[in-house]
Amino acid sequence: MSSDSRKFVRFEIPLDVALKEPGLENGKREALTKDFSRKGLCLTSNSFNFDLNSVVELELMVPDKKDPLKISGEVVWKKQVDDKWAVGLEFKEIDSACKIDILEFAYNSWLAKIRRHEA
Prior knowledge:
Structural class: alpha+beta
Number of domains: 1
Distance between the termini: 22 Å
CATH superfamily: predicted glycosyltransferase like domains
Shape: globular
Largest sheet: 6 strands, antiparallel, barrel
C-alpha cells in the first residue's frame, strides 16, 4: 500500500462493470474496476456522466459468479486521465453476501499473485 492515509487495504483487481446510465441505447455503460476496499472501489471508463455525490447503480462481473453482483455507490471523486475517467465510489447499497463475495475474490486473487511472485 502507498504512503497515503487510507483506512482500508485496497486490492488491485480489474473486473468488468456495467454502469446503469439513463439515456444510453442499452441503458448501460461499460467500465473496469481498478481496485477495491471494504468501503468502495475505483473504476475507469471512457465516459462518465455522473456528478459528485450522485448515486450510481452497478453490475459487477465476478468470474466465480454466474450472475452479476448488483451494488450502488456514491461518486466521491472523479478526474479525467488522458482519454478516460477515473472515478471513486463509496458503497451505498451492497448486500453483506455480495460484499463478502467481492472481497473474497479480491483477496484470493491478491494471494495468488503474491504466491506466484514468491515461487
